[in-house]
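Q: My collaborator sent me two sequences in one message, no labels, and asked for predicted structures for both. Can we handle them in order? The first one she listed is below.
A: Yes, handling them in the order given. First sequence, followed by its structure tokens:
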Amino acid sequence: MTTARKIASFLLKTKAVKLSPDKPFKWSSGWNSPIYCDNRITLSDTEARTFIKKALAKAIKKQFPEADLIAGVATAGIAQGALVADVLNLPFAYVRPKPKEHGMGNQIEGKIEKGQKVVVLEDLISTGGSSLKAVDALREQGIEVVGMIAIFTYGFKVADVNFEEKGVKLVTLSHYNYLIDEALQQEYISANDVESLKKWRRNPAKWGI
């Protein structure tokens, strides 16, 4: 089994991903969605946590060998980022959505230095908006962002456009298509569900309306 399929299998096994085409979830954006993903749940499963940690580290070594800093996106990317930084024996920092309103007012927590080459680590990519705000914050501090890595992506076209416009290379371990294939193989969903799930990915804002 490929890494992408194995990750998809772990997401289903740990119930980090829930698929419900008939009773959709409501996202904070207002979208109706047949899928809900919370990759933090994989942290509670030792087999999944270890596999994902090693897979992220291996991908970073291959795709971003020049990296000398790992930065997690708060909050979901913090734990995964710290685990991976430990495997790679690299420094770790994390980026808040906005600066703290008290204390030092930091948005980036951890020791960073201008000129460092960072890989930003995220658990999940939807549109990429919040993830790319972390990239902006790092760049403002003189950090060179060599790329971003994530466990899973929905594969929205808007995300591809957003990352391209920011000039950020994105690497993900698994993808929505692998998840649907694995869910069908495990009989988690039926063949009749597949077309509805694919339609959602093509136009999530209009799906279910």
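Q: And the one she listed second?
A: Here it is, processed independently of the first:
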Amino acid sequence: MSGRDAILARIRAATGGAKGEAEERLAARPRGPRPARAAEDPLERFAAEARAAGSTVAGPVPPEEVPAAIAEWLVNENLPARLAASPDPALDRYPWSSRPLLTLERRRAEPEDRVALTPCFAGVAETGTLAMLSGPERPVTLNFLPEAHIALVNARDLVGAYEDMWARMRAAGGTPRAVNLITGPSRSADIGQELRMGAHGPRRLHIVLVDDGPPEASDAC
């Protein structure tokens, strides 16, 4: 008998459960209570919570306007137009040639990079949090190394609660090696109780919400 089987047998003996009941419950992954804010409009709640956490938020904008929205923010923040960008094919859909001064280098981040650009797996509305999944085409260094991080979040990928995000991730085909949950720019008050931005990651987090319009019938769940 394996260790897992032994533990499940002890649980059944203690609770009087029938054989297979514990396995069925584990497979079903029952959800606990969800916060009331998770039932609100995900777009409005996400934007409000993200701003409250110190992020800046643009949009929603259609895909063809994403390069312009990024260029405008870089100019306003006096940041360079050279971006360390994720190799993720999710970025290929945007018309980067419409802004020829934007330079996207599709690679992992290096210490000298000032701005990173990444797509996002999901946005969690209840806290304005980004869910970033690691992988060969999604280097984790882009999320933490540059001083500014630009994240593209499709409005269709906003979910109400963390439980919804985990369920969506499992439905997408498994768990990556790392899941980074990012709420606002990096900050710390551990040193002398003084708030310091960029203590463990980007000093600025800019979120561009992308709107593809209402889902088509084939996209409906």
